[in-house]
Every structure is written in C-alpha cells, then in structure tokens.
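Researcher: Next sequence.
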Amino acid sequence: QVQLVESGGGLVQPGGSLRLSCAASGSVFSIKTMGWYRQAPGKQRELVSWIISSDGSTNYADSVKGRFTISRDNAKNTMYLQMNSLKPEDTAVYYCNLVGGSSTYTARYWGQGTQVPVSS
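Model: Next structure:
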C-alpha cells in the first residue's frame, strides 16, 4: 500500500519560510489529486492546497493564497509546499494526503505529519 511521509517542519519566526516535503512510496502524484492539510491545536483539519493529478494545476485556501506554493516532482514521487511570509496562525501539524476521494479511502493514508510552530 502507498505510504506518505511528511518532512521539513520546524520552528520558524513570523515572516520566515519553510519548504515541506511529502514523499510517497509509489507513483501517486500523476494518478491521484494530492494536497496539503493542516491541523492547528484545538481545531479541525483543513485543506490548504492541492494539485490536480492530470494537469498539475494548483489550488489554495484563501488563508494561504499568495504565500504558499504547492508543487510536485513526479519522477521523485515527492510533493512540496513552499511556505513564505509565515504567520503565527499558520502554526499547525501539516499533512499530505489524497484530495477529493471518499473520506474512508483517504483515512488509510494519514501519516504523523510534520510540526510547524510559527513563533517569535
């Protein structure tokens, strides 16, 4: 089965930048629409960005639009999230997973995520 592993998180100051990586065990990014989710303490998990498998087009939640950039490298089976101009409200655990499928199917692939604390 496909495994997804997030990395690249860490403490960053407001206004700083990080690049997160999502490594997949198989060739999924050209087959399935994938995206980045985040879950802040005490809040529900939210979808922040996703990339369409067929054409590579990108989408963003209003809260991150203009600051975050999603990309993929199909040859490396890796998806990235470049985060710039980070704000304290971006603090969350960030996850990658499938987007647009059934919740039952998506639930199979949740990993441990990568922590992004944004604080001075």
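Model: The longest strand covers residues 18-24. The mean pLDDT is 95.
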